[in-house]
Structure formats: structure tokens, C-alpha cells
Design goal:
It contains 17 helices and 15 strands. By secondary structure, it is an alpha+beta fold. The longest helix has 20 residues. It is globular. The N terminus is likely disordered.
């Protein structure tokens, strides 16, 4: 369902933009220079995530007053906004600004859906490197980071105390063998899916695409069936073989099984994302959150860093004003205010030391885990990775193939699909 909110703030027709120093060139100045020459207020259409518009309400009111514009906000599921833009953009009913996952940026740029931003190095410099890099394609900036998230470990305090938490995955393995009995389990994870299994695969030396010194992906170099990846998947398979995961926690329904068991107090711990902070609390679970334990080989468990961003549509007729909005809505002050309301962890570097955020266990867990995590590749070829690897992991979990056989098949499928759909080598 789409929810629409609109804030219309009365403002003086003679409102002036903030002055600049000698020789300075700012987005505000550019917007002022490209005005329509009339007193008619312009309108920006912004697509925000579901139930997140309250986090930018104050910032929007301030932006409307400062720029003498109206901002209309429509809530849409952020992961599917690009799909809607493909339809609405050409028809003239799309947004000026949208929010989206960072791993969709590369594909959106290839399709011509996003406008490049002329943000200064000073503006870009306030965000963490990993978050800012998610918004660049071939060195060009196409958005600014809104928030970051990683998967983290939730534990039920009624089953295990913070002092008793294992610090290694082997410790969790041993504890899970003690706790697994009937419908009760220890640690549960969706390791039949690459999104979660990457935590182990990367820690053992596997990788999706190789990268050059500049961080560009080499789609001919796949490391999903190298020795490290095979070792990781073989280790994952032992959790299934030992019955430490319920038999129904494989495939499409696995996430529902995991969430239900934790919400019912039948699992000591689960690996999930910040999106479950509210639902688990609503279920009445007294939980804690921490970053991941270390792997049996001594390396840290990794995770995919998810970056939410604000981006400007290439179909926007007010691109400079839209860029000004993106810079305004993601600045330090407004990022902190949005966090206080929505609990989305901001990507602004200095806010990691903010007292409010520093005292939030969930925010700290995400921040700590992100130190040992990596961006999801944001190139179009990544679309060919998910299903083949998920299928491989599930065939191993159900003992239909060995880890080596399943991963070899997955990698060959990925290569064939890249060749067919992206003209790869």
C-alpha cells in the first residue's frame, strides 16, 4: 500500500537562500541561479521507505522554508522503488528523489534511471568510505547514503546471559548440541542462502567477484568454488547433519521458521538483521544483540553491508533542487534526527561517537559488525549469483551433492548466465 504525506509550509515569497563566501560555489547557489523566474513554488516528489517518512518530517519542513518549495512524500517499499521508477519515470509520474538499496545502484545507472550528482569532496567526506563507495559507479556519484545495516546476532536473555555468550562459532556449535531438544534449538541461521552464508564463505577465503586495485569487479573471476568456499560450505553442512537446524528451515519458508522459533522463545539465538528489532520486541522476547563470533579458523565472520541511499531520478525536471534536497536530508543533523525516530543507523562517520547512538546496543552491534563486512556487489552481473548459489547451498544441506560438486555447478551456471545476459567472457 502506498501512503502519501504532504507538508505545505507557508513561507515568504521573498525568502533568500543562505549567502556564500567569495568564490564559493554551492548547490544552493546553483538552485537559486536556475529558478523559474517567478514566485510560483516548485514541488519535489520524494519516495520514502514504508513507515519511515516520520523520520524526515522536520527536515522536510526546514527544507521547504529554506528553498521556498513544497515537498510531497510518498511511502513505498524501498527495495522495489527502482522497479516502480522504470514504469513511472518515462510517464512523467515518477519521483524527483527516491530511496533504494546500494546494491541496486549499478544496475540502475546502466539502465539510465539515476542522475549523476555533482557533490563536493567535502560533502562526500562526511560519510563512511564503504557507504559512500556504494554510491559510485566508475568514479561518478549517483546518490548519498541514508543508513547502513548488517546482519547481527540476537540472543534470548532468558535462555543465555550476556556473560555466557560464546565468542566463537565453535562455541555456539557446542552449545547448540546441548540445547537442541525437540522443538528447542541453540543458534539458528539461514545458511542455505548466500546472503547469510557469505559470512562464512568470505571468512574462509571465498569471494563472489575478484576486484582490481581500484575496487572494480572482475566478473570473470569467481571465487565461490575455491578451496576456502568449499571448506566453508562443508562446515555449514555439519550443522544440518547434526540436526542443529530444523529440517523445515531450508528454502523459501526458512526465514519464517527461524523468526517463529525465536519469537516463540524456542531458539537461544538467531542471525538476522535490524529489521527484526521491532518484531522480536513485539513478540515479548527479552533479547540482546551483538556482532558475530569468530570462525573456527580464527577469522572474523563477515556480512554484507547494506546501504540505503537517497538518489535523484534521471527523469526529474528539477535535478539541481533534488540534489540539494539529497544533500540536506542526509547531512549530520538530519541523519541524527532520522535515527532518533526510525533507529536506522546513519552512515555519517562522526555520528558513530554520538552519545545516543553509542548507548544503543543494536546500533553498536551494526557498527562493530560492519567493520568486518563488505558491500554487496552493485553491478548488474550480481543478479546472476543469488539463485545458483542458494540452490547449491540447499542441495548440500539436503545431502544431494557434495560442497565441491554443488559450488562447481553454481559457478558454471553464473558464468553461463553472465555470458548470455551481460555479454561476459
Amino acid at each position: 500500500m502506498v501512503k502519501t504525506s504532504k507538508w505545505l509550509l507557508a513561507a515568504s515569497a521573498g525568502l533568500l537562500l543562505a549567502a556564500c563566501g567569495p568564490g564559493e560555489s554551492t548547490t544552493e547557489e546553483s538552485v537559486a541561479d536556475t529558478g523559474n523566474g517567478s514566485d510560483e513554488r516548485q514541488t519535489l516528489l520524494v519516495w520514502e521507505d514504508i513507515e519511515k517518512s516520520n523520520g524526515i518530517e522536520e527536515a522536510i519542513a526546514a527544507f521547504e522554508e529554506e528553498y521556498n518549495v513544497d515537498v510531497e512524500v510518498v511511502e513505498k517499499a524501498y527495495a522495489s522503488q527502482i522497479e516502480d521508477l522504470r514504469l513511472d519515470g518515462p510517464g512523467g509520474t515518477g519521483p524527483d528523489v527516491l530511496t533504494m538499496p546500494g546494491d541496486q545502484v549499478g544496475t540502475a545507472v546502466v539502465e539510465g534511471l539515476l542522475a549523476p550528482l555533482s557533490t563536493t569532496e567535502e560533502v562526500q567526506g562526511i560519510y563512511t568510505d564503504v557507504a559512500m563507495n556504494s554510491q559510485k559507479v566508475d568514479g561518478t556519484v549517483y546518490g548519498l547514503p541514508k543508513a547502513v545495516e548488517t546482519t547481527i546476532l540476537y540472543y534470548n536473555k532468558e535462555i543465555i546471559s550476556e556473560e555466557e555468550l560464546p565468542t566463537t562459532l565453535e562455541g555456539w556449535y557446542d552449545l547448540s548440541k546441548e540445547l537442541t531438544n525437540g522443538d528447542n534449538y541453540g543458534l539458528l541461521a539461514l545458511w542455505d542462502q548466500i546472503y547469510y552464508a557469505q559470512s562464512l564463505i568470505s571468512g574462509y577465503g571465498g569471494y563472489i567477484f575478484g576486484q582490481d586495485a581500484d575496487g572494480n569487479y572482475d566478473t570473470t573471476d569467481l571465487g565461490l568454488n575455491n578451496d576456502g568456499a568449499v571448506e566453508a560450505v562443508e562446515y555449514i553442512s555439519t550443522w544440518y547433519e547434526e540436526g542443529l537446524f530444523p529440517s523445515g528451515m531450508i528454502g523459501e519458508q526458512a526465514i519464517n521458521v527461524l523468526d517463529s522459533l525465536f519469537a516463540e522463545g524456542k531458539a537461544a539465538a538467531v542471525i538476522s538483521g535490524p529489521w527484526n528489532l521491532g518484531p522480536y520486541s513485539d513478540a515479548g522476547i527479552d533479547y540482546g544483540v551483538v556482532s558475530f563470533p569468530t570462525l573456527p579458523n580464527g577469522n572474523p565472520m563477515s556480512a554484507f553491508v547494506g546501504v540505503k541511499s537517497y538518489n535523484v531520478s534521471s527523469y526529474s525536471k528539477n535535478k539541481e533542487l533534488a540534489q540539494a534536497f539529497v544533500e540536506f536530508i542526509t547531512n549530520e543533523e538530519n541523519s541524527l534526527k532520522r535515527y532518533e525516530i526510525t533507529k536506522e543507523v546513519p552512515a555519517v562517520t562522526v555520528l558513530a561517537e554520538n552519545e545516543t547512538i553509542a548507548q544503543d546496543p543494536a546500533a553498536q552491534a551494526v557498527a562493530e559488525q560492519s567493520q568486518n563486512s563488505e558491500l554487496t556487489p552493485s553491478i548488474p552481473e550480481m543478479a546472476e549469483v543469488w539463485l545458483p548459489v542458494d540452490s547449491a547451498l540447499q542441495t548440500v544441506a539436503t545431502k544431494q551433492q557434495t560442497a565441491k560438486e554443488a559450488l562447481d555447478t553454481a559457478v558454471q551456471t553464473i558464468k553461463d548466465q553472465i555470458q548470455a545476459n551481460h555479454g561476459g567472457n
